[in-house]
Fold:
Amino acid sequence: MNRMDMLKYILINVIETLMRWVPIQYKRTLIKIGTPDRNSPVFLTCNYHLTVERLKRVLRGVDCYILPSNSRGFNVWCGATGGHFNNHSVISSLKTSGIEKLVDHRNIILPQLSAAGIEKKVIKEKIGWKVIWGPVYAGDIPEFIENGFRKTLEMREVKFPLVQRIEMGVMWAFPFSMISGLIAILLFPGICLPLVAFIWLLSLLMFLSFPLYTRWLNPERKNIAFSRYSVIFDFSRLPLIFWGCVIIILVFYSILSGEFSTGFIFRWCVISLIFILLISIDLMGSTPVYKSGLHKDRFLKVYLDEKKCKGAGFCEQVCPKNCFNVDVVQHIARITEENRCVRCGACIIQCPFDALCFKSPEGKFLPPENIRKFKLNLFGKRLKQIL
Amino acid sequence: MSLYILMKILESFPEKYNRGITILTRGNLDDTYNRLITFVKRGQKVLDIGCGTGMLTIKAAKKGAFVKGIDVNPGMLETAKNMVEKENIIQNVEFSEMGAVELESETSESYDIVMSGLCFSELNEDELSLTLKEIKRILKPGGLLLIADETIPKNILKKIVYKIIRFPFLIITYILTQSTTKPVKSLDKVLEEKGFLIKSVRLNKMENFVEIVAKKP
Structure:
């Protein structure tokens, strides 16, 4: 039986990693793990199918409840930051799942990354549940429980380990290779397989070698892109200029060598265009450390108003990059690792004294209430007032 | 009419929502809402659940009712507020960032009408159940519940056509927003179970869009 479970788990992981883009939703009903009693911990998470499956796997052996909450099938971080996984999702789950009748305590453990969208203060005020920020990775939960529901510095940090990089590579490779594979079958069947192999290799290489080239990536140097949505329409971009040059050279080469044919040129155009497109995705939103040209918020800086800060340390608890250092003697927080900040805004949203806010390069401030109200998605209005 | 799924795209950029949805539904939604609004009378107290950019709210307020619009999306509410200011009906409208399951702060038997356009399809069974229970509590006896929402056709042929038409839109919506809508099944039966009296159920030709008028006994 156990072996069957393992097999099923592996299968789910493989399929859903391939279809990483698809917001497969887990049914929003309370899940019991083991034999939970009235004091068992309650873990709330998003309703992205793979997340819930993995959480279930990690928590086996622990008597507890899992509550998948409405994030419209998005993962925790994207859902919370983009406004799909919000206060209302949590309130709704706590109220309608029946958990209130099953446990005596009123503590709910939320994944730390959801702090970018869910407000601890609001949940407490509206329905009286106390939010405890769990670790970033579900894998750390058993240790977190052993620790008496306290996190170590390690547990608070988002990393980009090899497994995750492979996952991201697969996430891009699969849909890209499927679409271009299909086109290739229709137009020139001969190159279908090599094309698919090429796309897989390229995207895996892009993500696997990420640590090697990170230091040369400097998102702040780039201007705000002319067209926000895609490189396809923006011919001023370097990759497209480069692509044009390659094609021209190719045409000249084929004419000179006497092997010119439109089919040959067309094929190379398509292949190289796919190459350019994959490269120019600019790792968009697929890494937890690097913001692409699409993310206008990369210019923002977190600003700390020392007069308002009382050193409560909420920021330190939710920062996924450990940027803060709270001085417990002087009761004040300090941003010690500013360059590591990924602008998720979790610290600003959670600060009970509104001591933090975003500051634009021109020196304009984006107040906390706006950051709480306007979420950060591609169509979001968070930056409207200042950029 | 399968275009309701494209709402998801429009929800992502609220200021274009109203114009977009009118084009998408070729005025059908507007007609639907206008039909529902005929039940609203001057001076009545109305609650709009999932008001979005306030299409229903504004229509009701223009008829002289006092409307409270609630929604979970603060961006949409911001757009709704701007629209209300433009229409010059601020004194009749109030907005609040609230979910459908968060109605306990409303006083019992205080509303003449509760209405909801394209919102119940976002709720799961438990949420719908709680929401309907609360609606029944806050409605005055004889008060009306007006619903317009996406549904799944019962006729098998229409169901197949519906699925086929819906599919490409599903893909487009998905590419742009990575999310989707889920139509509600037999809402009228659920309402009856919850103790509402169904006054009328109106399906469009494709049977994928339903308008329900229910009454609290």
